Amino acid sequence: MAVSTVNISFQEDLLNQIDRIAQDEARTRSELIRESVRIYIERKKKWESIFAYGETISSKYKFTEEDVNQEIQKYREEKGRKTNENNIGC
């Protein structure tokens, strides 16, 4: 795999944090930044996949954003009741 060198500007405080973590983990600044970018890209792809799935389901079942918000609210209310019921028995 070909390797390219790039120049990146960081605020001094952020660069200091990067250097501290790299030193704590016994690796180079470049290794830490490469891993961080790989993780970012993986997470971005996962979220894109999740949102695409949500779009597919919402289209299939004709869910609106308001429908989703109402279901979230119902879930939170039910979860809150269960938590309160468990705390009363303590």
Largest sheet: none
Secondary-structure element string: HHH
The portion of residues forming beta strands comes to under 5%
Gyration radius, in Å: 22 Å
**Number of DSSP strands?**
0
Q: How many DSSP H or I helices?
A: 3
Terminal CA distance reads 60 Å
- Low-confidence segments: none
- Tally of distinct domains: 1
Class derived from helix and strand content: mainly alpha
Mean pLDDT: 93
What is the general shape?
A: flat
> What is the percent of helical residues?
over 70%
Summarize the entry for a quick read:
Helix content is 78%, strand content 0%. It has 90 residues and is mainly alpha-helical.
Describe this structure in words.
With 90 residues, the protein is mostly helical. The chain has one domain (12-88). It has helices at residues 12-24, 29-61, 65-88.
What is the secondary structure topology, with strand pairs?
Layout: H1 12-24, H2 29-61, H3 65-88
Key descriptive features of the protein:
single chain, 90 residues, mainly alpha, 78% helix
